[in-house]
Amino acid sequence: MIVADRKPLKEILEMLDGCNRVLIVGCKGCVSVCNVGGSKEVGILASILKIAGKKNGLDIEVDEKTLERQCDPEYVDQIKDVVADYDVILSMACGVGPQFLSERYPENRCLPAVNTTFFGGAVQHGIWEERCAGCGTCGIHHFGGLCPIARCSKSLLNGPCGGSADGKCEISKDVDCIWDMIVKKAMEQGRLDDLLKFKPAKNWSTARDGGPRTSVREELVQ
Amino acid sequence: MSELKSGSNLEKVLKAGHFAFTGECGPPKGANVEHLKEKIEPLKGMVDAVNVTDNQTAVVRMSSWAASTIMCQEGVEPNFQMVCRDRNRLAIQADILGVYAMGIRNMLCLSGDHQRFGNHPESKNVYDIDSMQLIALVKKMRDEGKFLNGEEIDVPPRLFIGAAANPFSDPFEFRVYRLAKKIDAGADFIQTQCIYNMDRFKEFIKQAVDMGLYEKCYILAGVTPMKSVGMALYMAKQVPGMDVPESLIKRLRGAGKGKAGEEGIRFALEQIEEFKEMEGVAGVHLMAIEWEHKVPEIAERAGVLPRPTV
Hints:
The complex is a heterodimer. In chain A, 27% of the residues lie in helices and 23% in strands. Chain A contains eight helices and nine strands. The radius of gyration of chain A is 22 Å and the shape is elongated. The A-B interface holds A 153-168, 170-172, 177, 180, 183-184, 187, 192, 195-196, 198-202, 204 and B 84-85, 89, 111-114, 116-117, 125, 127-133, 136-137, 148, 164-166, 169-171, 173-174, 177-178, 180-181, 184-185, 193, 240-241.
Protein backbone atom coordinates (compact mmCIF):
# COMPACT_ATOMS: atom_id res chain seq x y z
CA MET A 1 0.00 0.00 0.00
CA ILE A 2 0.93 3.65 -0.12
CA VAL A 3 2.03 4.72 3.34
CA ALA A 4 1.71 8.25 4.66
CA ASP A 5 2.06 10.27 7.85
CA ARG A 6 -0.15 13.14 8.88
CA LYS A 7 1.48 16.54 8.57
CA PRO A 8 2.25 18.36 11.82
CA LEU A 9 -0.73 20.36 13.04
CA LYS A 10 1.27 23.58 12.92
CA GLU A 11 1.87 23.14 9.19
CA ILE A 12 -1.78 22.34 8.54
CA LEU A 13 -2.88 25.42 10.49
CA GLU A 14 -0.45 27.58 8.53
CA MET A 15 -1.88 26.25 5.26
CA LEU A 16 -5.41 26.98 6.50
CA ASP A 17 -4.61 30.53 7.58
CA GLY A 18 -7.52 32.76 6.59
CA CYS A 19 -9.85 29.89 5.69
CA ASN A 20 -13.20 29.73 7.45
CA ARG A 21 -14.92 26.83 5.78
CA VAL A 22 -12.91 23.64 5.47
CA LEU A 23 -13.95 20.31 4.00
CA ILE A 24 -11.70 17.49 5.14
CA VAL A 25 -11.80 14.66 2.64
CA GLY A 26 -10.60 11.24 3.68
CA CYS A 27 -9.93 8.16 1.58
CA LYS A 28 -10.93 4.57 2.28
CA GLY A 29 -7.93 3.23 0.34
CA CYS A 30 -4.33 2.81 1.49
CA VAL A 31 -4.38 5.72 3.94
CA SER A 32 -7.27 4.11 5.81
CA VAL A 33 -5.30 0.89 6.11
CA CYS A 34 -2.26 2.70 7.46
CA ASN A 35 -4.44 4.66 9.86
CA VAL A 36 -3.68 8.11 8.60
CA GLY A 37 -6.47 9.33 6.33
CA GLY A 38 -9.59 7.20 6.80
CA SER A 39 -12.89 8.35 8.27
CA LYS A 40 -11.61 7.93 11.81
CA GLU A 41 -8.58 10.14 11.21
CA VAL A 42 -10.73 12.65 9.33
CA GLY A 43 -12.93 12.91 12.43
CA ILE A 44 -9.95 13.37 14.71
CA LEU A 45 -8.41 16.08 12.53
CA ALA A 46 -11.79 17.87 12.29
CA SER A 47 -12.06 17.94 16.09
CA ILE A 48 -8.49 19.19 16.45
CA LEU A 49 -9.06 21.96 13.92
CA LYS A 50 -12.27 23.03 15.62
CA ILE A 51 -10.52 23.16 19.01
CA ALA A 52 -7.54 25.01 17.56
CA GLY A 53 -9.90 27.47 15.89
CA LYS A 54 -11.72 28.19 19.14
CA LYS A 55 -8.45 28.54 21.02
CA ASN A 56 -7.26 31.12 18.53
CA GLY A 57 -10.60 32.92 18.45
CA LEU A 58 -11.25 31.95 14.86
CA ASP A 59 -14.57 31.07 13.39
CA ILE A 60 -13.68 27.90 11.48
CA GLU A 61 -16.35 25.55 10.21
CA VAL A 62 -15.08 22.08 9.48
CA ASP A 63 -17.01 19.36 7.67
CA GLU A 64 -15.99 15.79 6.98
CA LYS A 65 -16.36 13.44 4.06
CA THR A 66 -14.54 10.21 3.36
CA LEU A 67 -14.56 8.89 -0.20
CA GLU A 68 -14.22 5.32 -1.36
CA ARG A 69 -11.00 6.41 -3.10
CA GLN A 70 -9.53 9.71 -4.21
CA CYS A 71 -7.58 8.23 -7.10
CA ASP A 72 -10.68 7.56 -9.18
CA PRO A 73 -12.76 10.31 -10.89
CA GLU A 74 -15.93 8.36 -10.17
CA TYR A 75 -15.51 8.82 -6.41
CA VAL A 76 -13.95 12.27 -6.59
CA ASP A 77 -17.16 13.35 -8.37
CA GLN A 78 -19.22 12.53 -5.29
CA ILE A 79 -18.47 15.86 -3.64
CA LYS A 80 -19.24 17.98 -6.71
CA ASP A 81 -22.43 19.43 -5.23
CA VAL A 82 -20.84 20.64 -2.04
CA VAL A 83 -17.36 21.87 -2.87
CA ALA A 84 -18.56 25.37 -3.71
CA ASP A 85 -19.53 25.83 -0.06
CA TYR A 86 -15.90 25.65 1.12
CA ASP A 87 -12.83 27.88 1.05
CA VAL A 88 -10.59 24.90 1.01
CA ILE A 89 -10.63 21.14 0.55
CA LEU A 90 -8.15 19.42 2.83
CA SER A 91 -7.30 15.98 1.50
CA MET A 92 -6.13 13.24 3.80
CA ALA A 93 -5.34 10.87 0.92
CA CYS A 94 -1.86 10.18 -0.43
CA GLY A 95 -0.36 12.76 -2.81
CA VAL A 96 -2.64 11.49 -5.57
CA GLY A 97 -5.81 12.58 -3.80
CA PRO A 98 -5.30 16.35 -3.53
CA GLN A 99 -4.14 16.38 -7.15
CA PHE A 100 -7.22 14.55 -8.44
CA LEU A 101 -9.29 16.97 -6.39
CA SER A 102 -7.35 19.97 -7.73
CA GLU A 103 -7.83 18.81 -11.32
CA ARG A 104 -11.54 18.02 -10.88
CA TYR A 105 -12.34 21.20 -8.93
CA PRO A 106 -10.13 23.90 -10.46
CA GLU A 107 -12.09 26.63 -8.68
CA ASN A 108 -11.22 25.26 -5.26
CA ARG A 109 -8.04 25.26 -3.23
CA CYS A 110 -7.10 21.66 -2.47
CA LEU A 111 -4.43 21.07 0.17
CA PRO A 112 -2.58 17.98 1.41
CA ALA A 113 -2.95 17.05 5.07
CA VAL A 114 -0.51 14.14 4.91
CA ASN A 115 3.05 13.49 3.78
CA THR A 116 3.13 10.52 1.43
CA THR A 117 6.17 8.47 2.33
CA PHE A 118 6.51 5.13 0.53
CA PHE A 119 5.11 1.88 -0.87
CA GLY A 120 5.23 -0.59 1.95
CA GLY A 121 3.44 -2.72 4.45
CA ALA A 122 2.85 -3.21 8.16
CA VAL A 123 5.59 -5.29 9.77
CA GLN A 124 3.72 -5.13 13.05
CA HIS A 125 0.77 -3.19 14.37
CA GLY A 126 1.63 0.49 14.04
CA ILE A 127 4.91 0.01 12.17
CA TRP A 128 5.19 0.22 8.40
CA GLU A 129 8.28 -0.33 6.28
CA GLU A 130 9.21 0.51 2.72
CA ARG A 131 9.35 -2.37 0.28
CA CYS A 132 9.06 -0.99 -3.26
CA ALA A 133 10.51 2.00 -5.09
CA GLY A 134 8.20 1.73 -8.10
CA CYS A 135 11.14 1.58 -10.50
CA GLY A 136 8.99 0.11 -13.26
CA THR A 137 11.09 -3.00 -13.90
CA CYS A 138 10.82 -5.44 -11.03
CA GLY A 139 13.90 -7.60 -10.60
CA ILE A 140 13.51 -8.93 -7.09
CA HIS A 141 13.69 -12.49 -8.40
CA HIS A 142 17.44 -11.89 -8.80
CA PHE A 143 17.77 -11.08 -5.12
CA GLY A 144 15.85 -13.79 -3.31
CA GLY A 145 12.62 -11.84 -3.52
CA LEU A 146 14.08 -8.83 -1.69
CA CYS A 147 14.46 -5.41 -3.29
CA PRO A 148 17.85 -3.70 -3.04
CA ILE A 149 16.62 -0.68 -4.99
CA ALA A 150 14.05 0.25 -2.39
CA ARG A 151 15.77 -1.17 0.64
CA CYS A 152 19.51 -0.59 0.17
CA SER A 153 20.37 3.01 1.09
CA LYS A 154 22.54 3.16 -2.03
CA SER A 155 20.28 1.01 -4.25
CA LEU A 156 23.26 -1.24 -4.95
CA LEU A 157 22.66 -4.08 -7.39
CA ASN A 158 26.00 -5.71 -6.59
CA GLY A 159 26.13 -5.30 -2.83
CA PRO A 160 26.73 -5.39 0.04
CA CYS A 161 28.89 -2.30 0.44
CA GLY A 162 31.67 -2.03 2.99
CA GLY A 163 29.40 -0.33 5.50
CA SER A 164 27.32 -3.38 6.34
CA ALA A 165 27.87 -4.37 9.97
CA ASP A 166 26.01 -6.92 12.10
CA GLY A 167 23.13 -6.98 9.64
CA LYS A 168 22.63 -3.24 9.84
CA CYS A 169 23.07 -0.48 7.28
CA GLU A 170 25.84 2.08 7.65
CA ILE A 171 23.32 4.92 7.83
CA SER A 172 21.70 3.75 11.06
CA LYS A 173 21.54 0.84 13.44
CA ASP A 174 17.76 1.09 13.04
CA VAL A 175 17.97 0.19 9.35
CA ASP A 176 18.48 -3.42 8.31
CA CYS A 177 21.07 -4.08 5.63
CA ILE A 178 19.00 -5.68 2.91
CA TRP A 179 22.15 -7.03 1.28
CA ASP A 180 22.98 -8.90 4.47
CA MET A 181 19.56 -10.52 4.19
CA ILE A 182 19.97 -11.19 0.46
CA VAL A 183 23.37 -12.86 0.95
CA LYS A 184 22.31 -14.93 3.94
CA LYS A 185 19.18 -16.12 2.19
CA ALA A 186 21.15 -17.09 -0.91
CA MET A 187 23.64 -19.01 1.23
CA GLU A 188 20.90 -20.80 3.15
CA GLN A 189 19.18 -21.77 -0.09
CA GLY A 190 22.44 -22.84 -1.74
CA ARG A 191 21.95 -20.22 -4.44
CA LEU A 192 25.06 -18.13 -3.88
CA ASP A 193 25.95 -18.42 -7.57
CA ASP A 194 23.05 -16.10 -8.36
CA LEU A 195 24.79 -13.33 -6.45
CA LEU A 196 28.18 -13.92 -8.03
CA LYS A 197 26.79 -12.92 -11.41
CA PHE A 198 27.51 -9.33 -12.36
CA LYS A 199 24.35 -7.22 -12.47
CA PRO A 200 24.76 -4.58 -15.17
CA ALA A 201 23.75 -0.94 -14.85
CA LYS A 202 20.00 -0.64 -14.52
CA ASN A 203 17.81 0.96 -17.13
CA TRP A 204 16.19 3.71 -15.09
CA SER A 205 14.03 4.97 -17.93
CA THR A 206 11.07 3.00 -16.57
CA ALA A 207 11.49 4.71 -13.20
CA ARG A 208 10.64 8.35 -12.43
CA ASP A 209 13.96 9.24 -14.10
CA GLY A 210 12.29 8.61 -17.46
CA GLY A 211 9.76 11.36 -16.78
CA PRO A 212 6.17 11.14 -15.47
CA ARG A 213 4.71 7.75 -16.24
CA THR A 214 1.44 6.59 -17.74
CA SER A 215 0.06 3.08 -17.82
CA VAL A 216 -2.35 2.26 -20.64
CA ARG A 217 -4.45 -0.93 -20.62
CA GLU A 218 -5.82 -0.91 -24.17
CA GLU A 219 -8.61 -3.40 -23.52
CA LEU A 220 -10.06 -1.15 -20.85
CA VAL A 221 -9.77 2.16 -22.68
CA GLN A 222 -13.15 3.24 -24.06
CA MET B 1 48.96 -8.93 -16.81
CA SER B 2 51.30 -9.17 -19.81
CA GLU B 3 51.29 -5.67 -21.26
CA LEU B 4 50.69 -2.36 -19.54
CA LYS B 5 47.08 -1.30 -19.39
CA SER B 6 47.63 2.28 -18.37
CA GLY B 7 51.34 2.87 -18.08
CA SER B 8 50.90 4.42 -14.65
CA ASN B 9 53.80 4.35 -12.22
CA LEU B 10 51.74 2.25 -9.82
CA GLU B 11 51.02 -0.30 -12.51
CA LYS B 12 54.69 -0.48 -13.50
CA VAL B 13 55.85 -0.87 -9.91
CA LEU B 14 53.38 -3.68 -9.27
CA LYS B 15 54.03 -5.38 -12.58
CA ALA B 16 57.78 -5.35 -11.91
CA GLY B 17 57.06 -7.28 -8.72
CA HIS B 18 57.95 -4.56 -6.25
CA PHE B 19 56.11 -4.25 -2.95
CA ALA B 20 53.94 -1.22 -3.66
CA PHE B 21 53.47 1.63 -1.23
CA THR B 22 50.65 4.10 -1.85
CA GLY B 23 49.52 7.12 0.10
CA GLU B 24 46.41 9.19 0.49
CA CYS B 25 45.53 12.86 0.48
CA GLY B 26 42.19 14.50 1.16
CA PRO B 27 41.62 17.69 -0.86
CA PRO B 28 41.04 20.88 1.14
CA LYS B 29 37.63 22.19 2.22
CA GLY B 30 38.03 25.12 -0.11
CA ALA B 31 39.98 26.23 -3.12
CA ASN B 32 43.16 26.54 -1.08
CA VAL B 33 45.73 25.30 -3.57
CA GLU B 34 48.63 26.17 -1.28
CA HIS B 35 47.20 24.00 1.47
CA LEU B 36 46.81 21.13 -0.97
CA LYS B 37 50.40 21.56 -2.14
CA GLU B 38 51.56 21.52 1.49
CA LYS B 39 49.81 18.19 1.96
CA ILE B 40 51.27 16.80 -1.27
CA GLU B 41 54.84 17.91 -0.54
CA PRO B 42 55.76 15.34 2.14
CA LEU B 43 54.47 12.52 -0.09
CA LYS B 44 56.94 13.23 -2.91
CA GLY B 45 59.22 10.29 -3.49
CA MET B 46 57.72 8.44 -0.54
CA VAL B 47 54.94 6.54 -2.30
CA ASP B 48 54.18 5.12 -5.75
CA ALA B 49 50.84 6.90 -6.08
CA VAL B 50 48.56 8.95 -3.88
CA ASN B 51 44.82 8.40 -3.53
CA VAL B 52 42.90 11.63 -3.91
CA THR B 53 39.63 11.23 -2.06
CA ASP B 54 36.28 12.21 -3.56
CA ASN B 55 34.12 14.13 -1.07
CA GLN B 56 35.14 11.57 1.53
CA THR B 57 32.62 10.85 4.28
CA ALA B 58 30.22 12.86 2.11
CA VAL B 59 31.82 16.15 3.11
CA VAL B 60 32.22 18.67 0.29
CA ARG B 61 35.81 19.36 -0.66
CA MET B 62 37.73 20.42 -3.72
CA SER B 63 36.83 17.93 -6.45
CA SER B 64 39.04 14.87 -6.61
CA TRP B 65 39.75 15.36 -10.32
CA ALA B 66 40.90 18.95 -9.83
CA ALA B 67 43.07 18.02 -6.84
CA SER B 68 44.43 15.09 -8.86
CA THR B 69 45.49 17.35 -11.72
CA ILE B 70 47.22 19.70 -9.26
CA MET B 71 48.97 16.65 -7.87
CA CYS B 72 50.13 15.71 -11.39
CA GLN B 73 51.53 19.22 -11.82
CA GLU B 74 53.39 18.76 -8.54
CA GLY B 75 55.04 15.65 -9.92
CA VAL B 76 53.19 13.15 -7.76
CA GLU B 77 51.11 10.42 -9.34
CA PRO B 78 47.48 10.53 -8.21
CA ASN B 79 45.11 7.65 -7.76
CA PHE B 80 41.92 9.48 -8.63
CA GLN B 81 39.00 8.30 -6.50
CA MET B 82 35.45 8.43 -7.77
CA VAL B 83 32.27 7.65 -5.85
CA CYS B 84 28.91 6.74 -7.38
CA ARG B 85 26.99 8.84 -4.87
CA ASP B 86 27.40 12.20 -6.59
CA ARG B 87 27.28 11.53 -10.33
CA ASN B 88 25.11 9.75 -12.86
CA ARG B 89 26.55 7.75 -15.74
CA LEU B 90 26.84 10.81 -17.96
CA ALA B 91 28.93 12.76 -15.45
CA ILE B 92 30.93 9.65 -14.55
CA GLN B 93 31.96 8.97 -18.14
CA ALA B 94 32.64 12.64 -18.81
CA ASP B 95 34.88 12.86 -15.75
CA ILE B 96 36.71 9.67 -16.70
CA LEU B 97 37.53 11.15 -20.11
CA GLY B 98 38.44 14.44 -18.44
CA VAL B 99 40.86 13.00 -15.92
CA TYR B 100 42.56 10.88 -18.56
CA ALA B 101 42.92 13.94 -20.77
CA MET B 102 44.56 15.73 -17.84
CA GLY B 103 47.16 12.97 -17.44
CA ILE B 104 45.64 10.89 -14.68
CA ARG B 105 46.27 7.17 -15.06
CA ASN B 106 44.94 5.47 -11.89
CA MET B 107 41.35 5.45 -10.75
CA LEU B 108 39.75 3.93 -7.66
CA CYS B 109 36.08 3.01 -8.10
CA LEU B 110 33.90 3.36 -5.00
CA SER B 111 30.24 3.42 -4.05
CA GLY B 112 30.87 6.21 -1.54
CA ASP B 113 29.68 6.84 1.99
CA HIS B 114 26.01 7.66 2.28
CA GLN B 115 25.38 11.40 2.46
CA ARG B 116 23.80 10.98 5.87
CA PHE B 117 27.35 10.99 7.31
CA GLY B 118 28.36 14.19 5.66
CA ASN B 119 27.79 17.90 5.83
CA HIS B 120 24.89 17.91 3.37
CA PRO B 121 22.63 15.20 4.78
CA GLU B 122 19.62 16.78 3.06
CA SER B 123 21.04 16.14 -0.41
CA LYS B 124 19.63 13.75 -3.01
CA ASN B 125 21.99 10.91 -3.84
CA VAL B 126 22.52 9.47 -7.29
CA TYR B 127 23.67 5.84 -7.28
CA ASP B 128 22.74 5.52 -10.93
CA ILE B 129 25.38 2.79 -11.03
CA ASP B 130 27.21 1.01 -8.21
CA SER B 131 30.93 0.50 -7.64
CA MET B 132 30.88 -2.90 -9.37
CA GLN B 133 29.25 -1.39 -12.44
CA LEU B 134 31.71 1.52 -12.31
CA ILE B 135 34.66 -0.89 -12.44
CA ALA B 136 33.09 -2.65 -15.43
CA LEU B 137 32.38 0.71 -17.07
CA VAL B 138 36.00 1.91 -16.83
CA LYS B 139 37.17 -1.43 -18.19
CA LYS B 140 34.73 -1.24 -21.09
CA MET B 141 35.82 2.32 -21.89
CA ARG B 142 39.48 1.30 -21.78
CA ASP B 143 39.49 -2.17 -23.33
CA GLU B 144 36.61 -1.93 -25.78
CA GLY B 145 36.88 1.79 -26.42
CA LYS B 146 33.14 2.11 -25.90
CA PHE B 147 30.79 4.09 -23.72
CA LEU B 148 28.26 2.27 -21.56
CA ASN B 149 25.72 2.61 -24.36
CA GLY B 150 28.07 0.92 -26.83
CA GLU B 151 29.06 4.03 -28.79
CA GLU B 152 32.67 4.33 -29.86
CA ILE B 153 35.02 6.56 -27.89
CA ASP B 154 37.40 8.80 -29.83
CA VAL B 155 40.62 8.07 -27.87
CA PRO B 156 39.64 5.76 -25.01
CA PRO B 157 40.90 6.47 -21.50
CA ARG B 158 43.61 4.03 -20.44
CA LEU B 159 43.32 3.83 -16.70
CA PHE B 160 44.69 1.42 -14.11
CA ILE B 161 41.50 0.31 -12.37
CA GLY B 162 41.34 0.12 -8.63
CA ALA B 163 38.62 -1.04 -6.27
CA ALA B 164 38.14 -1.29 -2.54
CA ALA B 165 37.57 -4.32 -0.36
CA ASN B 166 36.51 -4.33 3.24
CA PRO B 167 37.34 -7.65 4.89
CA PHE B 168 35.80 -6.42 8.15
CA SER B 169 32.27 -5.66 7.16
CA ASP B 170 29.50 -8.23 7.09
CA PRO B 171 28.56 -10.81 6.05
CA PHE B 172 32.19 -11.92 6.37
CA GLU B 173 31.68 -15.16 4.43
CA PHE B 174 30.66 -13.20 1.36
CA ARG B 175 33.51 -10.68 1.38
CA VAL B 176 35.96 -12.77 -0.60
CA TYR B 177 33.29 -13.52 -3.21
CA ARG B 178 32.63 -9.83 -3.55
CA LEU B 179 36.36 -9.31 -4.03
CA ALA B 180 36.31 -11.98 -6.73
CA LYS B 181 33.37 -10.26 -8.37
CA LYS B 182 35.21 -6.94 -8.46
CA ILE B 183 38.22 -8.62 -10.04
CA ASP B 184 36.00 -10.30 -12.63
CA ALA B 185 34.38 -6.94 -13.33
CA GLY B 186 37.79 -5.49 -14.18
CA ALA B 187 39.70 -4.38 -11.07
CA ASP B 188 43.46 -4.40 -11.66
CA PHE B 189 44.29 -3.59 -8.06
CA ILE B 190 42.54 -3.59 -4.71
CA GLN B 191 43.08 -1.36 -1.72
CA THR B 192 41.54 -2.70 1.47
CA GLN B 193 39.83 -0.91 4.31
CA CYS B 194 42.13 0.02 7.22
CA ILE B 195 43.28 -3.19 8.86
CA TYR B 196 43.60 -3.48 12.62
CA ASN B 197 42.34 -7.02 13.21
CA MET B 198 45.22 -8.94 11.69
CA ASP B 199 43.71 -12.37 12.42
CA ARG B 200 40.58 -11.61 10.47
CA PHE B 201 42.60 -10.10 7.63
CA LYS B 202 44.80 -13.19 7.45
CA GLU B 203 41.71 -15.35 7.19
CA PHE B 204 40.42 -13.13 4.38
CA ILE B 205 43.67 -13.07 2.43
CA LYS B 206 44.02 -16.84 2.80
CA GLN B 207 40.62 -17.25 1.17
CA ALA B 208 41.73 -14.89 -1.62
CA VAL B 209 44.93 -16.88 -2.10
CA ASP B 210 43.05 -20.19 -2.10
CA MET B 211 40.76 -18.84 -4.81
CA GLY B 212 43.78 -17.64 -6.80
CA LEU B 213 42.58 -14.05 -6.73
CA TYR B 214 46.00 -12.59 -5.96
CA GLU B 215 47.22 -13.93 -9.30
CA LYS B 216 44.58 -11.93 -11.17
CA CYS B 217 44.83 -8.70 -9.25
CA TYR B 218 47.22 -6.83 -6.94
CA ILE B 219 45.95 -6.58 -3.38
CA LEU B 220 47.25 -3.68 -1.28
CA ALA B 221 46.67 -3.89 2.46
CA GLY B 222 45.19 -0.77 4.04
CA VAL B 223 47.09 0.73 6.96
CA THR B 224 46.06 3.79 8.97
CA PRO B 225 48.25 4.62 11.94
CA MET B 226 46.26 5.55 15.03
CA LYS B 227 47.11 9.06 16.16
CA SER B 228 45.51 8.78 19.57
CA VAL B 229 43.33 6.68 21.84
CA GLY B 230 40.44 8.97 20.90
CA MET B 231 40.88 8.15 17.23
CA ALA B 232 40.93 4.43 17.99
CA LEU B 233 37.74 4.69 20.04
CA TYR B 234 36.08 6.73 17.31
CA MET B 235 37.08 4.20 14.65
CA ALA B 236 35.90 1.32 16.84
CA LYS B 237 32.52 2.78 17.70
CA GLN B 238 31.53 5.28 15.04
CA VAL B 239 32.83 3.94 11.74
CA PRO B 240 30.66 1.15 10.33
CA GLY B 241 32.58 -1.81 8.97
CA MET B 242 35.72 -0.99 11.00
CA ASP B 243 37.19 -3.64 13.26
CA VAL B 244 39.46 -2.27 16.00
CA PRO B 245 40.41 -4.95 18.53
CA GLU B 246 40.29 -4.07 22.21
CA SER B 247 43.93 -5.20 22.49
CA LEU B 248 45.05 -2.34 20.23
CA ILE B 249 43.11 0.23 22.23
CA LYS B 250 44.71 -1.16 25.41
CA ARG B 251 48.14 -0.96 23.82
CA LEU B 252 47.64 2.68 22.84
CA ARG B 253 46.34 3.51 26.31
CA GLY B 254 49.30 1.72 27.87
CA ALA B 255 51.76 3.87 25.95
CA GLY B 256 51.07 6.74 28.31
CA LYS B 257 50.12 10.34 27.86
CA GLY B 258 51.36 11.91 24.64
CA LYS B 259 52.87 8.65 23.41
CA ALA B 260 49.84 6.95 21.84
CA GLY B 261 50.71 8.41 18.39
CA GLU B 262 54.16 6.83 18.44
CA GLU B 263 52.63 3.54 19.60
CA GLY B 264 50.14 3.79 16.73
CA ILE B 265 53.00 4.19 14.27
CA ARG B 266 54.83 1.23 15.81
CA PHE B 267 51.75 -0.93 15.38
CA ALA B 268 51.49 0.19 11.74
CA LEU B 269 55.18 -0.61 11.17
CA GLU B 270 54.73 -4.09 12.62
CA GLN B 271 51.77 -4.58 10.29
CA ILE B 272 53.77 -3.46 7.26
CA GLU B 273 56.54 -5.93 8.15
CA GLU B 274 53.96 -8.72 8.26
CA PHE B 275 52.38 -7.65 4.98
CA LYS B 276 55.75 -7.71 3.23
CA GLU B 277 55.94 -11.43 3.92
CA MET B 278 52.26 -12.26 3.55
CA GLU B 279 51.26 -14.35 0.56
CA GLY B 280 48.69 -12.56 -1.53
CA VAL B 281 49.63 -9.04 -0.42
CA ALA B 282 51.27 -6.97 -3.18
CA GLY B 283 51.78 -3.79 -1.20
CA VAL B 284 50.50 -1.41 1.42
CA HIS B 285 48.10 1.48 1.07
CA LEU B 286 49.01 3.94 3.81
CA MET B 287 46.15 6.20 4.76
CA ALA B 288 47.75 8.66 7.16
CA ILE B 289 44.57 10.63 7.74
CA GLU B 290 45.44 14.31 8.21
CA TRP B 291 48.92 13.09 9.05
CA GLU B 292 50.54 13.38 5.62
CA HIS B 293 53.66 14.97 7.12
CA LYS B 294 54.33 11.74 9.02
CA VAL B 295 54.51 9.69 5.82
CA PRO B 296 58.26 10.21 5.19
CA GLU B 297 59.07 9.03 8.72
CA ILE B 298 56.78 6.01 8.42
CA ALA B 299 58.12 5.12 4.97
CA GLU B 300 61.69 5.42 6.24
CA ARG B 301 61.09 3.33 9.34
CA ALA B 302 59.11 0.77 7.32
CA GLY B 303 62.15 0.28 5.09
CA VAL B 304 60.24 0.92 1.87
CA LEU B 305 62.57 3.69 0.67
CA PRO B 306 63.77 4.54 -1.84
CA ARG B 307 60.73 3.87 -3.96
CA PRO B 308 61.54 1.94 -7.11
CA THR B 309 61.90 3.77 -10.40
CA VAL B 310 60.47 1.63 -13.16
